[in-house]
Amino acid sequence: MDPLSLILDDMHFNGVVFAYTEMTAPWSLHMHTPGLAAFHTVGAGQCWLIREGEEPLLMQTGDLLVLPAGSAHKVQDKPHTMAQTEDLVPHLSTSDLDALKLGGGGPVCRLISGHARFDIDMAAPLIAALPPLMHLHGLGEAPPLWLGIGLQFLAQEVSARRPAQQAIINRLGDILFMECLRDYVESIPEDSGNWLAALKDRALSVALAQMHQNPRHNWTVPELAQHACLSRSAFADRFSQALGEPPLTYLTRHRMRLAARQLGNHSGMSVSRVADQVGYASEAAFSQAFKREYGVSPSVWRQQRTRETSTAE
Predict the structure, then answer these.
(1) Are 110 and 45 in contact (CB under 8 A)?
(2) What stretch of H or E contains 74?
(3) Contacts of 302 (CB under 8 A, 6+ apart)
């Protein structure tokens, strides 16, 4: 499996939470989903994206807009609308497909908006490497073929209730987000300084795939270099330049994110068992590595995460 697929698998995508809206001018929606990629697709009409400190951005029929980090923003009928802003997040749902209708009776804009569901901690390195905004145009010169097909399919699914509807929308939402990621990775210049460019480097991508496929293995730099078909020094230098850290540092950070997920998922798995799952024969060595990454011991981190979950519920 290629490394981007493995990275996406590690994120544990679990569909989308969305709302179908039919807005009539004037109108304004606010959305903020920290750490979770927010999206808007325009089924009909046009609207404006408003972000603090940024110029307003026009969205038109057929456009798909993704904010990978879920940063706070507004979508509204025009840059300086007179409408009161409505928070969209409480209207997001996994089951209610009835359109949310708001506005003052003017020109219509139909949107499908929401956010992807995935493991925020595992996704953090990828999200940090993405631009704050990904805007794909459905009209104009050579829009991506998958965009038109995908949005037509999505619009059809939300238009009427049908069996397996939510399951289909979930998978379609995941696919659209992954297509955005793939297009972005393919557009990155090799000398961009973005670690995602390493996914286009055959030698580095092979090594990354090995680490993500088997993080439990006791990898060494010479062994990874052999998989990459490079000398030890050439591999280490190339990896560090592309990803901003040495190979084993990258591996340790990845292992710690995997461990944090195990500790926080209420599995009841002991710390020693988690240590073994991510490649540590010694619980003490694992605990030291975990504390360096998260600032607290695995057991304390688990207690904190349990309290946070209880408070959220």
Answers:
(1) yes
(2) strand 73-76
(3) 263, 264
**Which among 186, 192, 193, 187 has a CA at the least distance from the CA of 244?**
193
3-state secondary structure of 46: strand
Non-local (6+) Cβ contacts of 63 within 8 A are: 41, 42, 135, 136, 137, 138, 139
The angle that helices 283-294 and 298-312 make with each other, rounded to 10 degrees, is: 50
pLDDT at site 268: 78
Rounded Cα–Cα distance for residues 35 and 116 (Å): 10
Tell me if 79 sits within 8 A of 11, measured CB to CB: no
Q: How far apart are CA 247 and CA 254, in angstroms?
A: 11
Report which DSSP code applies to 84. Answer: P
The pTM score is 0.88
pLDDT of residue 144: 87
Whether residue 172 is predicted with pLDDT greater than 60 in this model: the reply is yes
The tokens describing 172, both together, are: 């379609």
Nearest CA to 267 out of 302, 217, 304 is that of: 302
Distinct helix (H) and strand (E) counts, the chain: 11, 11
Residue count (the chain): 313
Tokens at 298, concatenated? 């695995």
Residue 139 main-chain phi, psi, to 5 deg: -120, 170
Token couple for 226: 């052999």
Residue 268: both structure tokens together: 């009841």
